[in-house]
Amino acid sequence: MPDFSNEFEMLAEAYAASGGNPLDLHNDQYGLMLVSGNHVLGKNEIPGLVIESAPLPDGIKARIIVKENAQIEKPVHLCFGVIPAEGIQRILADFIIEDNARASFLAHCTFPNAVKVQHIMEGTVRIGKNGVMEYNETHFHGPTGGVEVLPKMKIEVGSNGQYISTFRLSKGAAGVVRLDYEAYLEEKAVTELYAKIYGKASDDILVKESVYLNGNESRGLVKSRIVLTDEARAEVLGEVIGKGVNSRGHIDCMEVVQGQKARASAVPRLMVIEETAKLTHEAAIGSVDKRQVETLMARGLSEQEAIDVIVGGLLK
Amino acid sequence: MLEIKNVTLLRDNHLILDNLCLTIKPNEIHSILGMNGTGKSTLAYAVMGLTGYDLKSGEILWFGNKINHLSVTERAKLGITLAWQEPTRFEGLTVREYFKISGKNSAENLSAEQALEKVGLEASRYLNRGLDASLSGGERKRIELAAVLMMKPKLAILDEPDSGIDALSIDYIKDVIRELIRNQAAVMLITHHEEVAAIADRASALCSGRIIRTGSPEEVTRFFRNHCRPCQHINQPSDEVFSNA
């Protein structure tokens, strides 16, 4: 039975396993919030960054503000985890990027021992005029697949603002994933939503991403890369609504299925309300591209090595 | 080195290679000339052993050993490789990573920087780029040739390395071929480009899945120019052509 009294070290270890550098958690030049269960274990505010937090019975509530005109050069590290095998972690997070502010966030979600863990993220993002936010969320799960990941975000991007996010879950078993993002864009705002997930065993994945191009000349990209093996299943629902004059949107979905029992589906939905809006989509579902495999085999890789390289690239 | 003996291959019940015979000698450049649809790429894929290009009959011998049954990987490990006419793209794979894969089984590696230099691309601009749609067709082809150099193969099958390449870059392709020869490789060079074909030691003209002429590059190029280019019945070579082969 692991000793959970030293949660910081255990979380830092899991953070390293998910690709993070644990030294960053001790570097006071980085903005930081480290949450284990419903405990904020560490927090570091830097000039221009305000992090407010309060505990909930099953998680925390946080408000993260990047002040007007602040340009935060180094990524802000957010580390969420549940070390025990069972538990619920609810994160209610509001991100506010004020006018002309810029920040990027590296969020690591680690559940290395999960047998029955629920990770709920209910968030809002508000980006002011000319504000820029990048949000990269990487998950590290243990091998058992006992995690339910339920991220739900509502994103509002002000004029000339940008929001770029990547949700990545490629290490360990995904478990149950219900990703639900909605982005609303004002004039000349831009968003790019990326989801990269590797489903194995009996993982059950739903990715739903919607972009509302309300502002004139707003731009949106919804891009998903899903790889499925064993009996994993995934459904990708991408949606773009073009309402602004000369708005542009694109959905790009690729799902690679390996084996006879994995199941994948994709439903793109495009809706044009303003005649000058232009929306497009592309989707590819199937096995790994034979030509790519044979190209790498012609360089001396075995078939399985070639597939691993191709899949690794898609999820990178 | 490579002997293709009486190879017949069908695709979707269409005869593509028809009792084809061809020999590639060690360390020679052998150009294959032919109009569109004559079976040049199919010949390349059959030698590489790609899926769907199994022989109906005939043999492919590598230093006297039959390799018909070997997988693409096994053939690559023998030293055979192929540069496709339109190389595929890889999302999430950088040029550097691709080169590392290509040079994995080679004892004396060229550095990635040297390989790019050989094809006239600056390492600082290309090594960390993705091998994806952001590259132009010409850039991708040059990177493919550099990857072949990294492999140090014994036989490089180059399927129209000159198509879609600007005229100035043709010299780089010739340099790569010469470099392969310096490294003791043989090159099967599939091309429409007479200037490129001219660097070969020998050349063969292909029509209707058959080799209809083999000889010096000058002779075969002349034959190709005089007979194949003006031919009104593509893939239906006359008996006269075969009788003079």
Could you describe the 3D structure shown?
The complex is a heterodimer of chains A (316) and B (245). Chain A is mainly beta and 316 residues long. In chain A, 10% of the residues lie in helices and 56% in strands. In chain A, the strands form 2 sheets. Chain A has a 10-stranded mixed sheet with strand order 2-1-5-7-9-11-13-15-17-19. The longest helix of chain A is centred in the last third of the chain and has 13 residues, at 303-315. Chain A starts with 6 loop residues before the first helix and ends with a helix. The mean pLDDT of chain A is 92. Chain B is of the alpha/beta class and 245 residues long. Chain B contains 10 helices and 10 strands. In chain B, the strands form 2 sheets. Chain B has a 6-stranded mixed sheet with strand order 6-7-8-3-9-10, with helices on both faces. In chain B, strands 2-1-4-5 form a 4-stranded antiparallel sheet, covered by helices on one side. In chain B, strand 4 and strand 5 form a beta hairpin. In chain B, helix 4 crosses helix 6 (137-151). The model of chain B has no long low-confidence stretch (mean pLDDT 90). Chains A and B meet through helix 2 and helix 3 of A and helix 2 of B.
- Helix content percent band of chain A: 10-25%
* Rounded average pLDDT of chain A: 92
Largest sheet data of chain B: 6 strands, mixed
Trace the largest sheet of chain A across and list its strands: 2-1-5-7-9-11-13-15-17-19
SSE arrangement of chain B, N to C: EEEHEEHEHHHHEHEHEEHH
Count every beta strand of chain A, where a strand is a DSSP E run of 2 or more residues.
19
Q: Tell me the overall shape of chain B.
A: globular
Radius of gyration of chain A: 20 Å
Strand content of chain A: over 45%
Q: How much strand of chain B?
A: 15-25%
Biggest interface goes to:
A-B, 22 and 24 residues
Average residue pLDDT of chain B: 90
Give me the secondary-structure category of chain A.
mainly beta
Roughly how many Å apart are the termini of chain A?
34 Å
Rg of chain B, please? 18 Å
Number of helical regions of chain A: 3
Give the termini distance of chain B in whole angstroms: 23 Å
Structure class of chain B: alpha/beta
Uncertain regions of chain B: pLDDT < 50 for 5+ in a row?
Answer: none
Strand order of the largest sheet of chain B: 6-7-8-3-9-10
Work out the helicity level of chain B: 25-40%
